[in-house]
Amino acid sequence: MLCYFRPAQEIISNNPEFKDVVVRLGGFHMLMSYMGSIGTIMAGSGLKELFQSIYELNTFDKLMSGHSYARAVGSRGLTHRVLAQFIMETVSFSDEEKAVIESMLTSIDKNALLKADENEVVQVFTTKFKRAVQKLERRGQSLSCGCSTST
Hints:
The chain has helices spanning 2-14, 27-41, 47-52, 57-65, 69-89, 95-106, 110-114, 120-139. By secondary structure, it is mostly helical. It has two domains: 1-88, no CATH class; 91-150, no CATH class. The chain contains eight helices and no strands.
């Protein structure tokens, strides 16, 4: 993608006829670039070790660079779900809190979800979740799930 961007930028900058033209990435390539930037930021975070149990090493490199876009999106979604589940297992919620949250998530009424942050039970739920995340962050980089952050 960048192999076309730089020459196009040079042509435009060297030709006054194109002074009002702006070269930019298309939508899909912008998304690929965004996924690649996430991969760069997350380097050394332990994702490599996590994903090696699912993907081949070659695939992992493409995934983190954003070149394998569909897998990059899927793997990040999977990581989000696994981390959320891990965090949820460390928090104790009352039966009432669980029932309210489950009711909201299974409700057909979209207003219930749109106004969820106004619900007192959801606010308590959110506070407990945030505390659990902070507690895990304080525990350090290596969690009891067996994920090592060393590269």
